[in-house]
Design a protein that fits this description.
The chain is of the alpha+beta class. The protein is built from 7 helices and 4 strands, in the order E-H-H-E-H-H-E-H-H-E-H. The protein has a 4-stranded mixed beta sheet with strand order 2-3-1-4.
Length: 119
């Protein structure tokens, strides 16, 4: 049995209506790791709004929701260091570990979902 690499970071897509995204962002700003600048945040709504793709991020953007990417933990370090495969948006998105819709969670629960490593 072969076991893949264990990650202690996340690449998470987060979507939701603007009001809920604002609440999530406020809650996220209180997180110590986020405050220290060890989390990459990027709004990718425009990349998916008119995309011909039909994945969760494209569907959210086409419904008028905001879509953001958060990179945390060791994965943040890979992006910061521009490691192979982590130096482009497509490379980062290929490492996506989960999708969180903030319309379905409390802001605090959404922050925990984004910041919990390796899940």
């Amino acid at each position: 049995m072969e076991v893949g690499n264990v990650s202690f970071g996340n690449v998470v897509a987060v979507s939701g209506k603007s009001r809920n995204m604002y609440r999530f962002t406020e809650a996220m700003s209180k997180n110590p790791e986020f405050k220290s600048g060890k989390v990459m945040q990027r709004n990718v709504t425009d990349e998916y709004k008119y995309a011909s793709r039909n994945g969760l991020m494209a569907q959210a953007a086409q419904r008028g929701e905001s879509v953001e990417i958060y990179v945390t933990g060791e994965d943040y370090e890979y992006v910061r260091e521009c490691r192979d495969g982590w130096d482009t948006l497509d490379g980062i998105l290929s490492q996506l570990t989960k999708f969180v819709n903030v319309d379905r969670l409390s802001p605090e629960a959404a922050v925990r979902a984004v910041m919990k490593p390796g899940q």
